[in-house]
UniProtKB/TrEMBL annotation:
GO biological process: protein folding in endoplasmic reticulum
Membrane topology: Multi-pass membrane protein
A GO cellular component annotation in the UniProt record: EMC complex
PANTHER family associated with the record: ER MEMBRANE PROTEIN COMPLEX SUBUNIT 5
Pfam short name (any one): MMgT
Record has Signal as a keyword: yes
Family: Belongs to the membrane magnesium transporter (TC 1.A.67) family.
Keywords, in A-Z order: Membrane, Signal, Transmembrane, Transmembrane helix
Subcellular location: Endomembrane system
Main location group: membrane
InterPro entries: EMC_subunit, MMgT
Full protein name: Magnesium transporter
């Protein structure tokens, strides 16, 4: 995560903490008001329990800002298909999997098909056919 995404996420967390504190204070004030007015008249149950619109908007904005900060801090997505991913590894190597700090990603394993390409017991039939054909022509 870069400093922009960290600061955006921190600002969103600060806004969310303020919204939570405001919601708690609002509910505490409503409870105190309901307790003090209970001796005078019966309280209306639905009217006083709703949060003010500014607290609701602040909560939604804080959630969106936190989401934006997290999205800005994610690394680039890898291809879904293995063959495309292996092609990217062969073309770019470790340079294609560096994060914003210049370090190679922890999940980088290299070419996933390297075991198939370097099998010691693998028999290359085409190569043997060509060698046999060359041998037959030579004799």
């Amino acid at each position: 995560m870069g400093w922009i995404s960290k600061s955006t996420s921190a600002f969103g967390m600060l806004l969310l903490a303020h919204a939570c504190y405001s919601a708690h204070e609002h509910s505490a004030l409503i409870a105190y008001r309901a307790a003090s007015l209970s001796s005078l008249a019966a309280p209306q149950p639905g009217a006083a329990s709703a949060l003010p619109i500014d607290i609701t908007i602040e909560t939604i904005v804080a959630t969106l800002i936190i989401s934006l900060g997290l999205v800005l801090g994610t690394s680039t997505l890898r291809p879904v298909q293995w063959r495309v991913w292996a092609g990217q590894i062969e073309r770019e190597g470790e340079a294609g999997f560096k994060d914003s700090n210049g370090e190679v990603d922890k999940t980088y394993i290299g070419n996933p098909f390297r075991l198939l390409e370097s099998r010691p017991g693998f028999v290359d039939v085409r190569k043997q056919r060509k060698e046999f054909a060359d041998w037959v022509k030579a004799t």
